[in-house]
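Pasting as-is:
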Amino acid sequence: MAERVVFDTNVLISGLLWRGKPYQCLLLARAKIVQSVYCLPMLAELSEKLRKKFVFSENRIHAVITDIRRYAERVEIPGTLRVILADPDDDKFIECALVGSAELVVSSDPHLLDLGVYQNIKIIPPEVFAVRYILP
């Protein structure tokens, strides 16, 4: 059974725009070597950042979201978890991992990385995650 993982918005965007470790993480998910898990609030944040910060067209955003839905599993979160006090917007990634039975959250976000572990869910950077499957 494939390892279940949540990729945060930073990893998704970096994987879309550049060819580094975040890109390799997404390739692992697309190849079903790992099982990516997402929730709707994550897609909403991704869409908003692609639209406002990176000026993606609506068609391009739609293509990105459609691609994620092809390889990732959607879960519904209640939106009630409060763990990341410094940035409550990041709670959705931990909650998604909990609801989706993911072992890992892959993130570049210092607020998440500082947490390190939450209820046996490890939070690791893409560089650490990718080398578990791909030679550096």
